[in-house]
């Protein structure tokens, strides 16, 4: 096997870091590690864990680099889609005008070869840490 091939097959990445499912589920770690739950490094490598302050407003840019549609969900929060591209729009380029009243949902469909910018407030103290992102990819 080639040394650069990760096992199991990787089908998603965040911040250009391939996502690898942790051996210990993220929420189990968050609920069982006490004060250490506030340290992103306890959540394993390649999980892209972010510890947020309560009330913090966060924008997440998600670019879909393949031809499939993917439902995107943020556990424990409703969020706004402040930008949602058409199919085949390519990566987000920060030239969009944000709507006055953006759509608010708990799941959005990420369009093929498109992008979405999500905004949420970390206001659910039971679910604000860590930030578990979930995209349902066909290969996982």
Largest sheet: 4 strands, antiparallel
Total DSSP E strands = 9
Taking strands numbered 1, 2, ... along the chain, how are they ordered across the largest sheet?
Answer: 3-8-5-6
Q: End-to-end distance, in Å? A: 21 Å
| Secondary structure: helix percent | under 10%
N-to-C series of helices and strands? EEHEEEEEEE
Shape: globular
Uncertain ranges: 1-7, 134-140
Q: What do the pLDDT scores average to?
A: 78
Structural class determined from secondary elements: mainly beta
Strand content: 25-35%
What is the helix tally?
A: 1
Radius of gyration: 16 Å
Structural features, described:
- The chain is mostly beta strands.
- It contains one helix and nine strands.
- The strands form three sheets. Strands 3-8-5-6 form a four-stranded antiparallel sheet, with no helix packed on it. It has a three-stranded antiparallel sheet with strand order 7-4-9, with no helix packed on it. Strands 1-2 form a two-stranded antiparallel sheet.
- The radius of gyration is 16 Å and the shape is globular.
- The model is unreliable at 1-7 and 134-140 (pLDDT under 50).
Question: What descriptors fit this protein?
Answer:
4-stranded antiparallel sheet, mainly beta, disordered C terminus, disordered N terminus, 140 residues, 3-stranded antiparallel sheet, 1 helix, globular
In brief, what are we looking at here?
The protein has 140 residues and is mostly beta strands. Helix content is 5%, strand content 28%. The model is unreliable at 1-7 and 134-140 (pLDDT under 50).
């Amino acid at each position: 096997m080639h040394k650069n091939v990760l096992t199991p097959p990787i089908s998603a990445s965040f911040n250009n870091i391939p996502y690898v499912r942790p051996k210990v589920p993220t929420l189990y770690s968050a609920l069982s590690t006490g004060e250490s739950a506030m340290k992103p490094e306890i959540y394993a490598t390649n999980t892209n864990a972010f510890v947020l302050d309560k009330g913090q407003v966060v924008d997440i840019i998600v670019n879909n680099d393949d031809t499939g549609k993917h439902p995107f969900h943020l556990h424990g929060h409703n969020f706004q889609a402040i930008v949602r591209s058409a199919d085949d729009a390519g990566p987000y380029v920060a030239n969009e005008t944000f709507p006055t009243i953006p759509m608010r949902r708990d799941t959005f469909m990420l369009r093929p070869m498109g992008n979405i910018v999500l905004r949420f407030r970390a206001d659910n103290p039971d679910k604000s840490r860590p930030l578990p992102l979930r995209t349902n990819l066909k290969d996982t």
